[in-house]
UniProtKB/TrEMBL annotation:
Superkingdom as given in the UniProt entry: Bacteria
Coiled-coil regions listed: none
Region of interest: Disordered: 1-24
One Pfam match: Glycos_transf_2
Transferase keyword on record: yes
Glycosyltransferase 2-like domain sequence ranges: 49-203
Family membership: Belongs to the glycosyltransferase 2 family.
The name this protein goes by in its record: Glycosyltransferase involved in cell wall biosynthesis
InterPro entries: Glyco_trans_2-like (IPR001173), Glycosyltransferase_2 (IPR050256), Nucleotide-diphossugar_trans (IPR029044)
SUPFAM superfamilies membership: Nucleotide-diphospho-sugar transferases (SSF53448)
Lineage: Bacteria, Bacillati, Actinomycetota, Actinomycetes, Pseudonocardiales
Amino acid sequence: MTIHHPDDVVVTPPRPPERVPASAPVPRDVVAGELHKFSDGGLPAGPVSLIVPTKNEAANIAFVLEQVPPCVDEIVLVDGHSTDATIVTARSARPDIRVVHQEGTGKGDALRAGFLAAKGDIVVMIDADGSMAPQEIPHYLYFLGNGYDFVKGSRFMGGGGSRDITWLRRTGNRALLGMVNHLHHVLLTDLCYGYVAFHRRYLDYLDLSRPGFEVETQLTLSALRAGLRIAEVPSWEMPRRHGVSNLKTFRDGSRVLRTVLRDVDSGMSGRVLQGLRRQLHATRSDELAPQVRSEVAT
Ligand SMILES: Nc1nc2c(ncn2[C@@H]2O[C@H](COP(=O)(O)OP(=O)(O)OP(=O)(O)O)[C@@H](O)[C@H]2O)c(=O)[nH]1
Ligand SMILES: [Mg+2]
């Protein structure tokens, strides 16, 4: 049974935002109006919200929260129906933490709830398993404070690295990254990594309709589509401290692939990709068909 604290917020899953068409980049006056807001040290002057999607991380959460630097103004823990002492442990480490209970499942669903609950002008997302160092947060803020709109961590640029990633995941990540770079004419160095920060005013431009881990890729793709100025900062990924991963390489890898292919505009993608997309969509329609039929019958 979940005991809700009086301060807790239960967030009803929002309707997925309208997809931002490629032809509708962020209006420049939205950006220009905010450029004066930076403090002298190069960090953005607005409040910073840290979003921590958390599912059964009682053994890790205190380690993460204790390292959060003072530049963070609020911490929003989004609990994914944890059955261990995650929330109690988080509250004893940081009594000021806000807890949001997601109603659906998956990291994508959790982030959506967390972003909506965030009160800060700047939103940073970080994992709760101890694999990402909160001490890196000021690096992200520095770029947001100096003209960039969306900042993502990279394990594969100078200064970054991973002690966690397996050969298989590294290969998959590289292949998917190659597709994204080719399709969007960019030179990103990492794709499937969930250490990201952005100005909250761009939330409406970020497509967050995917429920699972593929949301990380979807965030980057929609930032590219919206014409946001993207910076990458080096990041070190460590193995999770305790517990087991929620990610399944093949299941989640194929979801990321679908997300990348779905994002491709007709005309940009070429015949092979279009064929692949059609096949994937056909498979999905087949999966959905019985459900649709039973809804019609009732
Ligand atoms: N709220 C919520 N959090 C989740 C859910 N699934 C995963 N998380 C959290 O999302 C973060 C990343 O999940 P992990 O299981 O570490 O996945 P990963 O980092 O991609 O995989 P590893 O490298 O193997 O650790 C962790 O903080 C999890 O607790 C979920 O359904 N709901
Ligand atoms: Mg992890």
